[in-house]
Amino acid sequence: MKLATFEAGGGVRIGALVKDGLLDLAAAANLDERVFFTSMQTLIEAGDAGLDTAHALAARWRGDHTLAPESVRFLPPLPVPNSIRDFANFELHCLQALETSMRTRARGEADPEAAYARFKASGAYDLPPIWYQRPFYFKGNRMTCSGHGATIRWPRFTTTLDYELEFAAVIGKTCVNVAREDAAGCIFGYTIYNDFSARDEQVRDQQFRMGPSKGKDFDTGNAMGPWIVTRDELPNVSNLSMESRINGEVQGRAQSSGMCHSFADCIAFVSRDETLYPGDVFGSGTAGNGCGFETGRYLEPGDVIELEVEGIGTLCNTIGARPG
C-alpha cells in the first residue's frame, strides 16, 4: 500500500492510494476500526492488525470517501518521526564529495593545481577504510519535516542551498540486537527523502569534525513523501532507479544498488544494544550525482526540485525566497 498523511479542510487525515485517489481511511472505517487511523504513527505501531485493516478497507472500497490527490495538502508521511538517522551509504557520492572538497580548498591557494596535487598525494581526502566496514550516520532534527508540495524556507544564514537525492526506510516495530538476516522484518515501508543542506554552513560545521549541525538543521529542511510504500509492495529495494530534476531538467541519475551498506546492515549496526522504535527513519544517504555539491548546480529561489525513486513515486518541493 501507499499511505499518506494529508489535510483537506477537516484536520490531519491518513489516506491509502487507490485507483481514483486517496481513500480517507478513518472516514471509510467503522467505529471499531478507526482506532488504527488517528495518525500514521498509530497505524505503524498497530503492526499487522492496522495494516490488515487498511488492506480490508481498500478491498471493500466502492468509490466513496475518496479525495483527488491534487485537492489535498500533503504533509510528511510521518509529520514528526520518532527519530531521524541519515546515513552515508553511497560510495560514489562520498568519493565525489571528497573530490569537490579537495578542489574547493585548492582554489583558495596561490597555486591551485599544485595545491590539488599536494592534497591528492597526502591521502587526507581518501575515503577511510573504516567506511567500508560499518555504516556511518548523523541524527537529524525530527521537528523540521516538510511534505510533498511544500515550500522550503531559505535559511537566512546560507547563500548555498542544496538538495540530496535519497530514500528512507521507516522502522515498523520495537526491536533490539537485530541480526542482519532478520532486519527486513523490522521495516514498515519506504519513502523518498530530500535532506536539504546549507553547504557553506556545513563546511564551517565540519571544521570541528563533529559532523553536520546548522548545515542540516533548519525549519522545513527534512522533506519526505509523498507517502510511505509498505514493505509488502516493495520487497526488494536493492536496485531501484533514482533521479533528481530541477525545473524539469535532469540533474542526476543513480541506482540504489550503489549503496555499499544496505538498510539491513544499518538496522543490524544501530540496534546493537540500542532499541529501535516504530516511526524511526533511516535515510539511505545521498545517491551518486544526487546533489549540487557533486554536479555544481545549487538551488535558487523559485526552483522546483523533484526526486523520483522507482516504486515509490516523486517528491516535489519549491524553494522559497531568500530572506530580506
Can you describe this structure?
With 324 residues, this protein is of the alpha+beta class. Helices cover 21% and strands 28% of the residues. The chain contains eight helices and 19 strands. Strands 1, 2, 3, 4, 5, 6, 7, 8, 11, 12, 14 and 17 form a twelve-stranded mixed sheet that branches. The protein has a five-stranded mixed sheet with strand order 9-19-18-15-16, with no helix packed on it. It has a two-stranded antiparallel ribbon with strand order 10-13. A hairpin with a 2-residue loop joins strand 15 and strand 16 (249-255). Helix 4 (91-107) packs across helix 5. The radius of gyration is 20 Å and the shape is globular. The model has no long low-confidence stretch (mean pLDDT 95).
Note the topology:
Layout: E1 2-7, E2 12-18, E3 21-24, H1 25-28, H2 40-45, H3 48-59, E4 66-67, E5 73-74, E6 83-87, H4 91-107, H5 112-122, E7 137-139, E8 145-146, E9 151-152, E10 161-162, E11 165-171, E12 187-195, E13 197-198, H6 199-205, E14 222-230, E15 241-246, E16 249-255, H7 263-270, E17 280-283, H8 292-295, E18 304-309, E19 313-319
Helix pairs in contact: 4-5
